[in-house]
Amino acid sequence: MTNSGVLLQMTDISKSFPGVKALDKVSITVRSGTVHALMGENGAGKSTLMKCAFGLYHPDEGEIKIDGKSVTLENPRKAMDCGISMIHQELQPIRTQNVMENIWVGRYPYKKTGPIHWVDEKKMYDDTKALLDELHIHDIDPYTSMGELSVSHCQLLEIARSVSYGAKVIIMDEPTSSLTDAESELLFAIISKLTAAGTAIIYISHRIEEILRLADEVTILRDGELVGCWPASELDGNLIVNRMVGREMTTRFPPKNRKIGEEYLQIENFTSADPSSFKDVNFHVRRGEVLGVGGLVGAQRTELMETVFGLRPLASGTIKIGGKQVEIKNAYDAITNGIALLTEERRATGIFPLLDITENTVVAKEAKEPEYFHMKNGLLDSKKRNNETQDYVEKLSVKTPTLKTPIINLSGGNQQKVLLARWMLTSPDILILDEPTRGIDVGAKFEIYTLIEQLVEQGKCVIMISSEMPELLGMCDRIMVMCEGKLTGILDGETATEEQIMLLASSYNK
Amino acid sequence: MKSKTFDTKKFLMNNVLYVIMIVIIITIAFISKGRFLSMRVMRDILNQSSVRVLVALGCMFVILSGQADLSGGRMVGLAAVVSGTLAQQQTYAIKFWPGLPELPVIVPVLVSILLGVAVGLCNGWIVAKLRVPAFLATLGVQMILFGANSLYINKAPNNSQPLGGILQSFKNLGSGNVAGINYIIIIAVVSAVLVHILLTKITMGKQIYAVGGNPEAAKVSGINVFKITLITYAIAGAFYGLAGCLECARTGSATSNYGLSYELDAIASCIVGGCSAGGGVGGVPGVFLGVVIFNVINYGLTFIGLSSYWQYVVKGLIIIAAIAIDVRKYDRKS
User: Fold this and answer.
1) Total count of domains within chain B
2) Contacts of B216 in chain A (CB under 8 A)
3) Cβ-nearest to A351 among B214, B219, B333
4) Can you tell me whether residue A217 is helix, strand or coil?
5) What is the pLDDT of residues A370-394, one digit of tens each?
């Protein structure tokens, strides 16, 4: 930990939203040249605090000092002028424009001829190239269209953009949540370059290994209050978890008591209709088993599972369920065949943001068996809909004021639980969970693991796509690894190591 | 953590419709020295609202499903003309279809509705299958409908004249009443109640909200988004068809200009009535009231002697205000 000067100081920040006190007198001090981790469960107030620092929210109380000067951050523009920059969890690049236009948007370099400002493409290209070189990002050309780039590249460019603004403090909200390990390494290298140059990084993440490795100081929040701030060297994984959840967490995974049965789902010679996607994939899942799916971004894991679920077209291949070949052309077919898919993008393809908890819960069951919620006269049985939802809200301990609350008002972890409830209600035999714990806090993660454990103990099949190695190793009976559309290997969950998974995940290149 | 000012703001946001309506009625009643509040005026307003309510109900289905429909007005015009040509007296000198016997009233009504359904299915197919943005798809359909209608009514011996000689039994649909309440008011109210039940008590109604709320999530949840889109447009078409034939019955005539810009009033009524322009939010009570508000303004401004052009200014302001509030209402903090 360096003793260099304080760049950003937020003191006694409070912020309320209708019905919730999101922050209650929280303080944080960020020093130059350090990585300051901000941790806490979902809903602890991390994002709210950072949005206050970036001018997106205005605190009800408290003081923000930058370089020792008290400031009011009316909007992100002002925050950026003060040297604060934020990389959002969900990136929003302008996909139709190219890399350099995205980096310099709003401040293109120009040449002047009288009153006309001509955009100086040449300078823009050179500046971009120099900026990317400085950050060791060599594989992106400034002319590439943003829409062609992967999420990880977009993220790196977002960081480049912050650097180009001369940001002194860069806030990163879950930067590695959509990155593979190799890409994360690149990000970490960039972070250490930035800190060496005196920039401060505020790093929000749920991944404890990352925090212990990167951070100089760790501030922990719980329920909108400050738990404390410690040098990272004084912490270990268990201490962090305990302080975040406020209770002892002995293990990160629930105890296993699985009885693995016969092969239930069989996928044979699966080839996507999209030639750039997966080819000739074979695998099976047994009853009472968790099959993990590992791989890097671009491994086509999501595409494969969405095809199994009927959302994407298949060129050739067969699906057998319980030994019988079935035809799955759309999600309805999949659901009626007992398959459920918890999608990766919760906001884009999961929740109905403005609809309430009940509607969000019953929708798939209602599509599968409309009569289930009908009264004798064919009209909807509101009572039954609410009761079934209430059952799941209690079973999965979803934190929501009422069943009438729009789901968008819940935290990410609670939204995820509602989506799980939606699928459990369809009583599926096969659950495909695509990154089920992404962006979810430790406590909620454990609850979701416990739920998965319960499901497999009931004899259901679970397929879990995950980019978190410990999760794959801790939860799965077998782990299939993909690389660029090919299945490169299936490992035993008991004996597999992170190195083996990594090797298979990148083996197609070699 | 609720402060007093917050409650007031929330109350205003959720009930803006009622507030606007009460303010306008009070203002008009005040200027007209109370004459505006008579039973006769109220019945006139409801009468005029009836056809508009049907158009707005249809339009609401499409808006709830997250799409747009500009074809409503011209569909009303087409249905008015077609039903008119099927409901002329045998003795009328320039009868459109001279060989056609006098048909029972139900025939032109059914033909109008079926025609509307057919056009609605086309709309839905173009939007859901060809993936033409709804706004432009229905703009195109609207033009086609107007063209087709004008070509149709231009047939000799009618030659584009307003249709006349409409059967009294058919006209009764529009002007007849039971216990002093016009049939069209009854039709509008019954339709509204049925739609309300459909949206709140039937699985398909809930699925329309789901598709409007997030079509991608709806697809993943096993809802047939294509089918729902087709159905919403078809129901909308059915209502436009019914509205068109009642418009002909009510006025005892029809030309290809009938229904002009009804779709815009309908969309405005839906938005003012609390439907989110993005889909997935809204309901019958709001839309019904939205229509009535616009007709109160129409009638009221004329009643107190203001130029009818003021209606447009006032309507425009209300639409903008309603959407400005709509945007804020669903502006959530993450």
Assistant:
1) 1
2) 348-349
3) B214
4) strand
5) 999 999 998 999 999 999 999 999 9
Q: ipTM for the complex?
A: 0.84
- Both tokens of residue B26? 């009070």
Rounded Cα distance, A104 and A464, in Å: 39
The answer to the question of residue B226 being in a domain is: yes
Q: Does A18 touch chain B (CB under 8 A)?
A: yes
Look at the block and give the residue holding tokens 């003309």.
Answer: B81
Quick: pLDDT tens for A423-463: 999 999 999 999 998 877 777 888 899 999 999 999 999 99
Q: Is the minimum CB–CB distance between B201 and chain A shorter than 8 Å?
A: yes
Q: Which residue has the tokens 């000799």?
A: B156
CB contact under 8 A, B221 and A353: no
Which of A16, A331, A370 has the CB atom closest to B221's CB atom?
A331
For helices B203-213 and B225-251, the axis angle rounded to 10 degrees is 110
Cβ B188 vs Cβ B53: under 8 Å: yes
Q: Is residue B277, in this structure, part of any structural domain at all? A: no
Give me the residues of B, 4-43, that contact A with CB < 8 A: 6, 10
pLDDT in tens, A81-113: 899 998 876 667 787 888 888 888 878 888 888
* DSSP-assigned letters across all residues of A19-53: TEEEEEEEEEEEETT-EEEEE--TTSSHHHHHHHH
Report yes or no: B332 at the A interface, CB cutoff 8 Å: yes
Q: Which two tokens stand for residue A196?
A: 């060496």
**B304, part of any domain:** no
Least CA distance to B222: which residue of chain A?
A: A332
- For residue B219, the distance in angstroms to the closest alpha carbon of chain A comes to 7
In chain A, residues 46-75 whose CB comes closer than 8 Å to chain B = 47, 57
Query: Which candidate, A296, A304, A295, places its Cα nearest to that of A277?
Result: A304
The rounded distance, in Å, linking the Cα atoms of B3 and B7 is 7
- Determine, yes or no, domain membership for B177: yes
Domain locations along chain A: 6-93+149-245, 287-313+330-509
Burial of B312 from C-beta contacts in 10 A (0-12 / 13-18 / 19+): exposed
Do A6-93+149-245 and A287-313+330-509 come out as alike in CATH topology?
yes
Structure-token pair, residue B45: 């307003």
Cβ of A409 and B332 within 8 Å? yes
Sequence-distant (6+) residues with CB within 8 A of B189 are none
What CATH code is assigned to A287-313+330-509? 3.40.50.300
What's the topology of domain A6-93+149-245? Answer: Rossmann fold (3.40.50)
Check: CB of residue B265 under 8 Å from CB of residue B271.
Answer: no
For residue B244, the enclosing domain spans 50-259
C-beta neighbour count of A484 within 10 angstroms: 19
Put simply, whether the predicted model's pTM sits higher than 0.90 gets the answer no
- Going by their DSSP bridges, the two strands A461-465 and A290-295 should be labelled as parallel
